[in-house]
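Morning F.,

Quick status update on the modeling queue. The single chain you submitted on Monday has been processed. Sequence for confirmation:
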Amino acid sequence: MRARTLPSLQKEVIHCTQCPRLVQYCSEIARTKRRAYREEEYWGKPVPGWGDPDARLLMIGLAPAAHGGNRTGRVFTGDASGDFLFRALHKAGFANQPTSRHRKDGLQLKGAYLTAVVHCAPPDNKPLPAEVETCRRYLVEELTILTKVKAVLVFGKIALDGFRAALRESSGIDLPAAATPFQHGASYEIARSKPRLFISYHPSRQNTQTGRLTEPMFDAVFLKIQAHLDRS
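Structure tokens below.
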């Protein structure tokens, strides 16, 4: 697959219409809106990855939230999961501020890039397997373009499975599930010349409000990543 620049890839993502169910859902949510945001103009389109083109850390989530990324046009922006994530990223030195409210809020990622396995908000936060597969080519290209990445952090099992498939497609490396099971806080060596894999629960409201994922647990993952990058 021909590697491109990040801006050209991001532009293609924004104009993608390959999953009709998701295109219709994103457009409908942008039209009806949530009452709290009824005066805002929703993005209502696929949401591209974003961050530092020289990133050493690549983070992969599931998909934009209907009233988060689908509203603001930036992944993990404008919802509770973003609040939780960017507090941790700021403390770890990967972000210049601890909040992510909208695309022009001054937030910058430092040495990090943030993307998702699906770039459209799915109904009930559950993309269909075929939609995940259709969107995979964008992650494959990000893995190809971001040549300085030394650590990959996945949020949730779907993101882990998506990374496994994209890694296999981009570099021919098979990462068996039995050898790299999903477990919060786990990390695995992929290959000598490849980034190290780190795993976290998704910072969704469901996980953070129930205590399944706490701030100390999340911070500990980034401490491990920092230590790895310091050695790399």
